[in-house]
Amino acid sequence: MDFSIGEVSRRSRVKIPTIRYYEQIGLLEVPKRTEGKQRRYESADLGRLNFIRHARELGFEIGPIRELLEMGRTPDQPCAAADEIARRHLGDVERRISQLIALRGELQRMVEECGHGRVGECRVIQVLGDHSHCETDHAAAAHARAPG
């Protein structure tokens, strides 16, 4: 059975431009095409897209997803490498949670200290303008994860 890109998009809940992007970067094999040049996908492509979408929902980056997909080609091998990828990702998630907790505390403190007066005396504006007013060093963490 084969599917159009629209049908694969609907079934996988992956947007058409994203499907094309996954083809461009090699996460998804370039599909066969009809005489009219329309892409035609197979059930295996749909399964792969569902895998990728679920992995992305769990926060996995493209590189680890590529590794995990490659591992799936040899199902009889030990899964230690897949476990290690998941452990690394879990560590990243735990670090982000810690950073977010610190950021939440800083924002709560900033809002609680606001006197609700004029902007010139606004604690939110003061703290955002001068990092030395912060109690945590969240700036380094933000720079470490900023794209760039």
Rg from alpha-carbon coordinates: 23 Å
Number of domains: 2
Under CATH, the topology of the largest domain can be stated as Multidrug-efflux Transporter Regulator, Chain: A, Domain 2
Order of strands in the sheet with the most strands?
1-3-2
Description:
The protein is mainly alpha-helical and 148 residues long. It has two domains: 2-71, Multidrug-efflux Transporter Regulator, Chain: A, Domain 2 (Orthogonal Bundle); 80-145. The chain contains seven helices and three strands. A three-stranded antiparallel sheet has the order 1-3-2. The chain starts with a strand and ends with a helix.
What are the SSEs and their pairings?
Elements: E1 2-3, H1 5-12, H2 16-24, E2 32-33, E3 39-42, H3 43-57, H4 62-71, H5 80-112, H6 123-129, H7 138-145
Antiparallel strand pairs: 1-3, 2-3
Q: How would you describe this structure in keywords?
A:
Multidrug-efflux Transporter Regulator, Chain: A, Domain 2, 7 helices, elongated, three-stranded antiparallel sheet, mainly alpha, 148 residues
Brief write-up:
With 148 residues, the protein is mainly alpha-helical. The chain is built from 7 helices and 3 strands. The chain is elongated and about 70 Å long.
